[in-house]
Amino acid sequence: MRGLLTVSLVAAGLAGSAFAHIHDSDAPIRRRKSLGFGPIHPHAVFRSSPYQIQTNGFLPFSAASNPVEVARQFVEDRMAGRLTRDNTFIIRKDSYTDKNTGVTHVYIRQVVNGIEVADGDMNINVKDGVVLSYGDSFYNGTAPISHVDDNDDEHPHATFCSQLESEVLDRRDSLSEFFASQSGEQTILGSSADIKETIMGPIEHLYLSNCAHVNKPYQLAKEDPSVAGSIGDSKKALLQFMIAATPNDRVLQDILARYDHHLSNMVSSFETHLVGDHSVMVEHIDKVPDTVNPVKAKLVYVQVPKGDKTILNLVWKFEVEMQDNWYEASVSAIAPHRIISVVDWASDSPLPKQPETKVPATYNVFAWGINDPAEGNRTLQKEYYDALASPVGWHSLPYANDPQSHGLRRNKTDFWRNTSTTFGNNVFAHEDWEGQNSWLDNYRPNAGKDMIFDYKYKPKVTDDSDALDEAKKYINATVTQLFYTSNMVHDLYYRYGFDEVSGNFQQYNFGRGGEENDAVIANAQDGSGYNNANFMTPPDGQNGRCRMYLWSTANPYRDGDLEAGIVIHELSHGLSTRLTGGPANSGCLGWGESGGMGEGWGDFLATMIRSTRNYSDYPMGAWAANKETGIRNFIYSLNETINPSTYKTLDKPGYWGVHAIGEVWAEILWIVSQHLINKHGYIDTLFPPASLENGTVPEGDFYRPAEYTSTGQRKPLIPKHGNSLIVQLVLNGMKLQQCRPSFFDARDAIIQADQILTGGENFCDLWKGFSERGLGPDARVEGRTPWGGGIRTNDYTVPLACKEQKIPETPKEPGKPEEPEDVVFYVEPGVTKTSCKNRRTKAA
């Protein structure tokens, strides 16, 4: 194995950009360290074809069957011959039924020897007694009879770093060869920094973040050989992880110098949690260096490849909340304590009685749909009262769920607290100039009894030394905008199915299920960095945290809180993380294609929200970055000369980071969306009609005319326009797909979402969109790595049923636009063509 590069890479000084969720490579920013890797599970599958599901003889149950029992029987069928007292499963309590589609999403966790298999997951999607699809990453081997660790070099961390090191060295060789062939710092392709970014991409930063301490477990084990081969103290495993995780060199050196002191200083307490009907002892470890809250720890198994099979390793699973990261980490329980996997979380019942009459708030903001200050002016907007999504508005929450009300004097009969600040049931928005994790008492604008949040915003050009102070003058306008945009996102996503049972972010859930006390903590002008933004998504019942930064890319500074696309992108991390694999499992979008899609969904949804009836290409983050082309490699476009991204693009240097992977996924979804828009037309608002007094939702011009079952029940409402339909399918697809999905899994889940919602009428349109950028049915990847590497093959064909030029006609709804005659689909293998004109069809 080549020698580790840590010292030489640090000495060389790494060019490039921050690798939090939004970045700009030309701006001076603080790089955020982030660990993220884990084993590849080649045995994991996602199946959505009825032929695949029924092949083994599993036939549908009656429509009246309990969907959870159907799922239970299905799991037992899948585990036939392997289901024993030592190899069983539990049904997780975050399973739920989607109110609109009627699909029950059942989440299963494998249990071996009475211990959870943390990555042994099944998600089973059931409706009317039928298993529609399922994902399965269960361990298929026999239960281990001991917990002895063989300490070989095939563990994921060492393997990951060895592969990553080879990639770094290969890229550095290519970089050296390129510069040796050039004269001077400026080349025809750009500056030396530009060339380095093109060739190296994020690979060096990935290596430094993840591999600087890969050998440290062995060194520490040698210093304390008495623990080798036995289940070690959780604190030793945790301290080993902190050595790798801390970005602070002072803290690192202190841990190494005073290792025994930190071990003895940490304090534990214990409590019992129930996972399904399975009892688990959880340890809370306090006084852990460089953490901001006690660490949660429990013993679990994880699956690790070994040769051509998979084995189970016993690990300590930690939840570690730090200043800039919130990790879910698996560390070997037996010394040497090696990191096996790590995910950074930092990538609806009757309506309640209304609180007493109060004045709806008014906000002077860039209205919903205006992406940034370059697109329009601020106007006065009323508090958006959606009786379904925010039944008591944006500024009310129960005293019992209000973290500011502990110890507050009030009448015992009072239930609701009405606030006059940017503090409500969905969002807590405030300044965070200190860049710290304390937030409860941070400054918020107070609109008084009139509830008018109308504040000046007119920053001036200043000396560079005064630019920060100039930006701070307008904190009231900034926090108001962040509060407004974040609540609008909450209400929009709620109406498309991101509700309480599926894991949304609310302090109070109105008795509708799900876990409470997890409103979004939204930091404006966060002082921990510049030119960036990020979102931390713990499991349901813990607050999400959104951090927005100033951008030093112009004078006066530009405020990321005012660019809606960036805020929407970040909040969409909470959406995709909670919907994929279930609301109690935040470890499903950690790295590789899965982590990349977490980024891509954010870009896609932000772009769909800002789009208009008149087609346009769109960049991401252009205003904040003061860069016309934005902060991605390409702007989102139908034109392949403007955005050439295909599935195969992921093989290129620079596409190993989740942001670049996400660009490709977002571009593919953008292409797919235009197929549906050209077929179904466009609607000017993505917000569905307000509900009636009885709680039902009228069709209006948003949904197709309602259909009813033979028993008089209304079937799921179907958005009638292309742009609203694709948003619905994308969210429904997140609920269907498995934990740690690939591009193929997410594609198939969206196609199945259409089958469930519309009966599959858009089957060919969706396939044509995916195949146009290489994600046809025969696309494949070989040698996939944790960071997204591998060799991919594009497929531009479509399923046989779609290869006919003319799709069989279906009855046309009154007022529905005809498909334009100039839309031509090219399905020959290897041919890539733009499939639709750069324009909208007239909406119905």
TrEMBL record:
Gene3D superfamilies: 3.10.170.10, Neutral Protease Domain 2. CDD domains: M36. Keywords: Hydrolase, Metal-binding, Metalloprotease, Protease, Secreted, Signal, Zinc, Zymogen. The active site is at E570. Its EC number is 3.4.24.-. InterPro entries: FTP_domain, Fungal_virulence_M36, Peptidase_M36, Peptidase_M4/M1_CTD_sf. Transmembrane segments: none annotated. Zn(2+) binds at D348, H569, H573, E599. GO terms for cellular component: extracellular space. Binds 1 zinc ion per subunit. Residues 1-20 form the signal peptide. Belongs to the peptidase M36 family. This is Extracellular metalloproteinase. The lineage of its organism: Eukaryota, Fungi, Dikarya, Basidiomycota, Agaricomycotina.
